[in-house]
Model the fold of this input.
Amino acid sequence: MSASALGGMALFVEVMRGFMVLLGTAAGYWLARDLVPSSPSAGGIGAMLGVLIGYISGGLLGRTTDRVLGVVERRVARLPGPQLVVGALGGIAGAAAGTILTLPLLLHVRPAISIPVAGIATWVLGALGFRIAASHSGDLFAAAGLSTRPLVRAEAFDPRDGYLLDTSALMDGRFAGLLDSGVLRDDLFVARFVLDEIQGFADAGSEDPRARRARRGLETLEHIKSAGAVRISVLDDEMPEIAQVDAKLVALAKRLSLRLLTADAQLASVAEIQGVPTLNLRRLAADLAPAVLAGERMMLRIIKAGREPGQGVGFLDDGSMVVVNGGAASVGAEPMEIVVSSVVPNAAGRLIFAKPAVSLRETEASSGIIGE
Done:
């Protein structure tokens, strides 16, 4: 047990002992006076005995009561952490309840006895109210519609806190699939400036691919809210001192001690360098995607030319890029059969190199003719 905890227990016990001494003194004095009315010194002797009994019983009662309160505290320790303001309000409520409960005693019993009893009840119920209210502060804040997320916390980046989403994650088509599959079950947070950026992309034009992805991202948010599988919240926190959206997002994640969920490999690297835990959506999807092995055949649509002459580029359903050597002539055509040459892991997940199956068969055929 820490020194501060021992000090708190000692203070609680001594306060309880003080009330019991007062109660014992008063009770001993009046009891001795009533039992031996003819003796003038009976009241003093009874008061001294009451002091002794109150001192001993107060220590025992104080330690027992503190242990009982400790049990209650440990049982609610797994709930949201204590907040000083909520704990103080709970203590005031508990003390008020103790005063109200002992009010009949104060009105009908001698003050020398009723006041210490009322003091004990007020002290115990006030301490209990403080501990319970502080341990339930998160629920109480939520019921009042207030934020439970302080700017500085003892345990940064608690895994239970959820993820702060960036624009690329919301616009990624795999994001909704990971949610529906149950892979992502943590709370999700979206900054207002990220929503504004996505809305700006969505309004750019119907033919813009980025606009289509942005609209899909907004539809995904609506789907999350309606499905209710995970909780999603919009944060109105603004970072006016920072202009760039990605820099704002990293700063906000650090400020709120939230993990970052992104599909941007560069943003993930920058966030990790600044100490923000990051989940790369592309890397997660690639890890969950079926393995692709060298020599495997598959059908692929070539959608654009590659960097090198003759290369064509396509994408698998999981978003993995496939570079097809000799596939430039098939850009925009029907899906073609390819043979995987190699698979290279990268920051975005994996990069697949392949060749057209037709050219491979021609090579094999020519090799056979030469062999003959």
